[in-house]
Design brief:
Length: 324
């Protein structure tokens, strides 16, 4: 499988998302998915302090299941574990809990759930009311204490990441080394996603990552199955329809099908390779709930598209203003 380096930490180009592990998915089923992912060459797992906290008994379960699998399989030196903290509370408008005491509580609980220090610790949301100076001082103290090896942002806009890293450089502090945002071949934005606190790839964000070569972790990389279902003739589910169905993406579906046929590749492989073959280092998060979904996604792990093929998939505009 293709890999990328994040501050010297190796990640497989496909990263397994674990949001429902231990809650929507049983421990046994979650273990089977991680076993299959690892057997196929996947080495990076993505979890978060708040995953499944909205479900009865789900609070902290994703981290606990990931930690248990890593420890029971004896794979701590073979996998990269990413977790996230600082997510806001319900009804707070998506503002992150990023004060020192809040982040300290979150990372303490994550360390307890996992049973070891994560390789990369991301801030799950931003809060522009809190100065980047305070945030970066806190995160630097986490790295110095051995709570994590590296830090990054999730759902932070480029200008805030740039400001945070400028301050970190000026004080010789640990900088952000990666960013996790919503990105797939299917264009979307915060309004379509139904959550304005999510940061979706657009022209401004793309320019920043192209200029800085900061590695991107792309969530919803398969557009909630929009392309796979569309290519097979299945009806879209409600999430794919509301978040990704528009004329532009229907045209991109036609292009995906054409390129997949031309290259003799599965549609899923083309969609994931669009992320992992782009203009800056990027890994695609895959949200699998079934073993066959893991197998289908991993078929594209080593596929590389040319710049011309990526441009063909995008069509006339990479990031247009959409009218649904």
């Amino acid at each position: 499988m293709k890999t990328l380096s994040v501050a010297g930490i190796s990640l497989s180009s496909l990263v397994l998302g674990t949001d429902y592990f231990g809650s929507g998915l049983s421990k046994d089923d979650s273990f089977r998915l991680m076993d299959a992912f690892f057997a196929a060459g996947g080495t990076a797992l993505d979890t978060a302090r708040m995953y499944a906290s909205w479900l009865p008994g789900g609070d902290g379960m994703s981290e606990k299941i990931v930690g248990a699998w890593v420890r029971e399989r004896g794979l701590r030196d073979s996998v990269t574990v990413i977790t996230k903290g600082g997510h806001g509370q319900k009804g707070d408008g998506g503002l992150g809990r990023l004060r020192r005491e809040e982040l300290s509580q979150d990372i303490s609980e994550s360390l307890d759930h996992l049973g070891f220090a994560p390789d990369i610790y991301l801030l799950h949301r931003d809060n522009v009311n809190i100065p980047v100076e305070d945030i970066m001082e806190t995160l630097h103290s986490f790295v110095k204490a051995g709570y994590t090896r590296a830090i990054g942002a999730s759902n932070w806009r480029a200008d805030r990441i740039a400001a945070a890293n400028a301050y970190a450089r000026s004080r010789n502090l640990t900088p952000f080394v990666t960013s996790e945002i919503q990105w797939s071949l299917a264009y979307s934005d915060g309004e379509m996603q139904g959550d304005p606190s999510l940061v979706c790839m657009d022209g401004t964000e793309f320019e920043f990552y192209e200029k800085t070569a900061m590695p991107v972790l792309a969530f919803s990389s398969q557009a909630k199955g929009f392309f796979a279902r569309g290519a097979s003739g299945e009806a879209q589910n409600s999430k794919a329809e509301s978040r990704f169905d528009c004329p532009l993406n229907r045209e991109r579906l036609r292009r995906v099908i054409a390129l997949a046929e031309r290259r003799g590749l599965p549609v899923t492989a083309v969609v994931l390779a669009y992320i992992t073959s782009n203009r800056f280092p990027a890994a695609a998060l895959i949200g699998c709930k079934k073993l066959e979904q893991v197998a289908d996604s991993m078929r594209g792990a080593d596929v590389t598209l040319t710049p011309e093929e990526c441009a063909f998939l995008e069509g006339d505009f990479r990031f247009p203003t959409l009218q649904k």
